[in-house]
Every structure is written in C-alpha cells, then in structure tokens.
Design brief:
Number of strands of chain A: 12
Number of helices of chain A: 12
Strand order of the largest sheet of chain A: 2-1-3-4-5-11
Structural class of chain A: alpha/beta
CATH topology of the largest domain in chain A: Rossmann fold
Largest interface: A-B, 42 and 42 residues
Radius of gyration of chain A: 25 Å
Number of domains of chain A: 3
Largest sheet of chain A: 6 strands, parallel
CATH architecture of the largest domain in chain A: 3-Layer(aba) Sandwich
Shape of chain A: elongated
Oligomer: homodimer
Chain lengths: 316, 316
DNA sequence: TTGTAGGCGTTATCAG
DNA sequence: CTGATAACGCCTACAA
C-alpha cells in the first residue's frame, strides 16, 4: 500500500502538503497541487482510513440498529440495508448490525441509524452520546427519513375514487404510531374532500388478521368497495378472504396495499400497491448520518420521500 | 475513553504489561495479571480497535459481497446478514455491503464473504488477495457454508413417501449449479432406493414459471402425487396452479418447498417446507472468515448444516 | 518477566 | 504557503 510518505517523496514535498491537498486543497498553491495530485494518481494512492480514524478519533463505523423483530417484519429491510450501505460506501464507512438495544453503545461507532422505534423507545435516545438518525417519522424533533405516509394514502384513496369505487374502507394497523396516524389522515382527508364518511378497521399486521376482519364483516360490504390497506400483508389477507367469499377482484372489490416490496409480487392476483423508495431512503439516511457526524451532531431535519402508486391487478 | 496508559498508571506497570495481559497473558506473572485486570475493570477499559487495526495492518472490516440480484432473490438474505453480523460483533468487526463485483477490492477490508456465486464468477476468486469464504456449495475447494442440500431433499422425498404419496415429482430450478445438482441427487437417490422412477421438471425460479408447468402437464398428474420443489417460490406457484385446476391439497396432492423463510408463512395453505438454518449459517460464515483472517488465509473447509422439515398444510 | 524505544499512517499545531 | 514535530493508542522487537 502506498502511503502519504510515498506520495510526498514522489512529489518532492512534505507529507503535510500531500495531506493538505487531500483535506484543505485551498491552502496549497495550484502548481504544487497539480504535482501532488499527479503523484497520487501515478502511485494509485488512497488514504488509509484506519490511520485517519485514529487521529480523528473516529471509527469509520456506524451501527444499524433494529428495534423491531426482523423475523416478523416485512422483508423490505434488505433494501433499506443495501441503500444504506451504498450511502456509507461513498465515505468508506462500514456498519455493524445491532438488534439488542442494550448493545447499542457497546463497542465503538461514530453514530447510529435507528429503525423500528416505537414510543417506548424514545426515552433511551436522549441518553445516546453519538449522533443518530431515525428511519420512520416521529414528532419529537429527531432527524428522520420516511415515506410521506399521508400523501401516500391520499394517492391511494384518490386513485380508488378515480376508478369509480363508491365506498373506500381503510384497513389499518392497530398500533399507535405516527406513521399509522399519517396514513389514516391521508385517507380521511381525501374522503372528507369528497364528502364521504371514513370507515376504518384496525388489525394487527398479519394477513390472517385481515382475513378475519373481512370474513366477519363481509355481508356488510357492498359492491364497488375498495379497501385501502396500511400494509401489503394486510392487503394479501384482504384479497385472500375476498376470494374465499366469492367476491370478484377487481370488478366488484378493489384492494390497494402499502410497501411495494416483494409480497406484492408473489401474491395472486398481483397487488396494486403504494411503493416506497426504500433503497433511496437508505441512501438518504446514510448521507444524513454521515453529514451529522461530520458536523458534530448538528440537526439534519426531516425528509419525507414521495411514494409511487403501482397499478396492478387488484384494482380495476 | 480510557487508554492503555491509563490502565498502566492505575496498575503501576508499563503499557506493555497491560498489552501483554490482553494479548499474551501467559507471559505475565499471575499476581501482576490480577492487578492489571482489576485496573482494566475499574477503569472500564476496552482496547481501541482502531489503534489495534493500525498497528496490525488490519481494518476490522470485511465485505459482504452479493453477486446475485438481491431484488429477485428470496428475502432470506436478511437472516443471513443478521447472522453474519452477530458473528462479526463478537470480534468488533464491521461490514460493508457490496453488490458490484468491480467494487470488491476497492477500499479496504480484511476479507470477504461472497454469496450468490455462479460458475462464471469463479475465475475472479483466484485473483483476490484477501481471505474469503463462500455462502453456497462448490466443488472447487473454496471454503464454504451451505445447507446440506442433498440430505435436505432426501428428507423431503422420504417424508412424502412416508405420507403415502405414490408418485413423487421434483420441480427443480433450471440452473447448472452445485446446489441444484445436490438437491436433485437427494431426490433421485431416495426414489431409487424405493425402486421408483424419478420425474423431474426444471423451471426458472419464479412462481409463475412453476404455475405454467403444472398447468401444462396437469392432466398427466395422478392423485397421490407429491411435488418436491427446489424453492418456496416454485412451491407457491405449484400450490396456486393445483388449486386453480381444482386439485385438493393436501389430500390428493402434496407440495413441499425449500428455504423456509417468509414466503412459506404468507402462502395459503401454509407450505410444508425444508427450513434452512440461515441465521446460523451467517454466524458460521462469520466465524469461519474471522478465523481464516486470523490464520492468514489457511483453509477452513466445508460446512454443511442440517436443515429441518417443517410440516404444515400442504402435505397430509 | 518486565520495560524502553520506535513505528504504524495520518493530521493539528506552530514555526519559518 | 510550506514544513518539522508531536500526537492518536497500540504492538513488535529488543534490552534489562
């Protein structure tokens, strides 16, 4: 591996000049800069991030903390992870995956990405001594990235109306968290604009729970109803039970999911769904976190990315 | 952060003695060792892995390389990743995720875990200058961890016979890779033991491809047939088309999947499947790779983990 | 068995 | 604007 010294020799300057060309190029005369850059090029020099980390008291490692149980969660974490990784790679950062909250501050890291945070988890955050960002909206002032949940369900609801479904029913997740409130708000607002009355069922985020609800209330559902669901899991359950009841999809009943990762592709018929730009969210989170680290913890704000409605086979 | 020096002062010894207590405890007298250990304890000392990395010319980072397209792959990678991460955490290692093969040697790492390798990829491996291990069986002498694919399909086939299905048909993946050959071999061997004639269809690893094959040949399938499938995706397609043809599962037709991650849980009826210990494989891969790094590249051999047959609703 | 000196590759600081 | 020096925290080699 070529080092700073090698480049310095090659360019006939001191190590410091080379270092400056890398970190503070404006402090070096253009002529010298060109020479040094050529030397770096010729020797294929890349700074040793470990040595940099040592002097800067950095680790070049961040932790990816998952507070949710990954087994029961949608497989979209893989996309978030790879997006996050892509973002980290630009700065030669690496990550450690942590599922046990007590392990967060164990070992060394420059910062944390925290996913799956619920209300009960927030107390812990203020005690963290390193910068962190959240995946998932919150209203406590913590930096985060999320889908624009409200707009997403507005899109879904409006689309259902455009397709001339007369009644729109929301099947939500029975959890008191901001993302769920936002999704419901998007649905409610859109209905109100059209002077329609919201009708909401809330179930645990499993397909069979959704099946149960459809089974129980099926007689009350009239034709031309569209179910706007807060997750693909729920949507899959709704579709399945509607089929079991002999209902025709999408002619008489529509179903719209939420997530757009994997499940929508293997279901039959294929789900119309709200697709979140998860990979991109991962990338955003990485750049946000790295920036926050570089700026010694300064706030990065909130980022809400626009989702996309994927039209497939469960809406007419 | 407390350093080696702090501990040394506290214990009234030199830094080296402390260092030795950590790395070569046998070279230190028991009495001193106790004193130093107490000092480390009192000061809550943890070695700075970055400084260690610098002197040892290590990075404490390994790369997780995915040569497969993660979008089209089973969501089991998430479990592999978390298992791998668990294994790395024991040694304070971090990882970088890489999907672009040309990026493998970019930046720094002490070694690589390579997944999704196909025949065409092997040429590249010999050029790698860092230790690596593979996820997925191969017969070229590279260290790997995988499910025992052959035993797995033996179990599946034998189980189908035990459940008194008279004909067992294998629906494989149309790919010329060791894992597929091993799965087929497990099936074929078991049939031959019972003097039955193997019948194999091969399709691309998508549910609709499996659907097509079932649709096309359905008339040729008699009652009491069990389909042993090389993946859950295929199994899901088989189930779906059998249902579409009006066949009764599991009474007249059985279906057994392979993978046991996620898909089997959301399908309806729930899949009987071969569950791979993926998390554990991830952990194994990590310890194997770390050991290989520690032993400067010495071979670690092949590890085939026993899978488990999960009996659910698609077999009688 | 224990300690001293030096160096890993980089950067901040201060002098020129 | 550029360079010499020291320091980050640890470990190897050698000396006592």
């Amino acid at each position: 591996m070529t080092t700073l010294s090698d480049v310095a020799k090659e360019a006939n300057v001191s190590k410091m000049t080379v270092s400056r060309v890398i970190n503070h190029p404006e402090q070096v005369t253009p002529e010298l800069r060109v020479i040094v850059e050529k030397a770096m090029e010729d020797l294929n020099y890349h700074p040793n991030s470990i040595a940099q980390a040592l002097v800067n008291n950095r680790t070049n490692v961040v932790k990816f903390v998952t507070l949710e149980d990954i087994d029961t969660t949608e497989p979209y974490y893989i996309n978030l992870l790879f997006g996050f990784a892509r973002g980290l790679n630009t700065k030669q950062y690496a990550m450690q995956l942590v599922t046990d909250p007590s392990q967060i501050e164990k070992g060394r890291a420059d910062g944390y990405l925290i996913t799956g945070a619920r209300n009960k988890d927030y107390d812990m955050f203020d005690k963290l001594d390193k910068p962190f960002v959240l995946f998932g909206e919150n209203h406590r002032g913590y930096d985060f990235v999320d889908t624009d949940n409200q707009t997403a369900e507005k899109m879904a609801t409006q689309y259902a109306l455009d397709r001339l479904y007369k009644r729109i029913i929301f099947i939500g997740i029975d959890i008191k968290e901001p993302f769920e409130y936002s999704r419901e708000a998007g649905y409610i607002n859109t209905l109100q604009q059209h002077q329609l009355i919201p009708q909401i069922y809330r179930v645990s985020n499993h397909s069979h729970a959704a099946q149960d609800v459809i089974h129980e209330h099926f007689k009350g559902f009239k034709k031309d109803t569209c179910f706007v669901c807060a997750s693909d899991r729920i949507a899959v359950g709704v579709v399945r039970q509607l089929q079991a009841e002999g209902a025709r999809i999408p002619e008489d009943f529509g179903v719209i999911g939420f997530d757009g990762v994997f499940l929508d592709q293997v279901s039959n018929p294929k789900l119309t769904t709200i697709k979140q730009p998860i990979f991109k969210m991962g990338e955003m989170l990485a750049s946000m976190l790295l920036q926050k680290i570089a700026q010694s913890g300064s706030p990065q704000g909130e980022v809400m990315l626009k989702p996309e409605l994927i039209r497939r086979e469960t809406t007419r």
